[in-house]
Give the backbone structure.
Amino acid sequence: MAAPPPDPSTLFRLDGRVAVVTGASAGLGDRFARVLHAAGATVVVAARRVERLDALAAELGERVLAVACDVTVDDDLVGLADTAAELAGGAVDVLVNNAGIGAPQPAESEPVGTFRDVVEVNLTALFRLTQLVAGPMVAAGRGSVVNVASMLGLVAATPIKQASYCASKGGVVNLTRELGCQWARKGVRVNALAPGWFPTEMTEGMWGDEASGRFVADQCPMGRRGELPELDGALLFLASDASSYMTGQTLTVDGGWTAR
């Protein structure tokens, strides 16, 4: 008699693993931390707003460590990587690079300093933290990096004008390809999650505005914005062994926006 097939849900479990989530004080980062924790991981949550991190840690209870971190400050990134490595006893298992900012405005009037700031947070800091965390991952021969990109790293945002955001997220998509290929034979996988329109602090101004809401409803093939729980499965897929033969890829969760 043939043995019963394994329970596929176990592929998505993260029991005994250590995960790091940046930008965890609100929005997607808060949700991602909760999802990884629910899947069994010990989660290091990082952001500038420490009081929010402390509240999240208090709510979730055990297996959560809050670390104050400004991703534009290299000493903070080094401290975060060191703290997470100490907690993990070496290499962390999962890094979710979620911290990000936007600055919607016409390209012809966007200050170059603003452009640099967005790229610094969304792309340069992401690379630096990945570099710090992936070193021990490579030495251990295992690990999963999930970069939070955006569908706007794949297509233009206009009529919502944000050149710096699109450029930085496009950089995240191709950096994901390159790092995924560089470390593919070393046991470290690097993939990206590209959400479409979801309710976050960055987009909150859209949902109280009738024209903005209508724009998303009219242009999205599914006719609506996404809701945060609709990213849970994609995140766990990329973070866990369920995607063990996947690297350098961008998983887009956008209601069909980029398929048009």
Observations:
- The chain has a mean pLDDT of 95.
- Helices lie at 27-38, 50-60, 74-88, 112-140, 163-182, 204-207, 210-219, 232-239.
- Strands lie at 18-22, 42-47, 64-68, 94-97, 143-148, 188-195, 250-253.
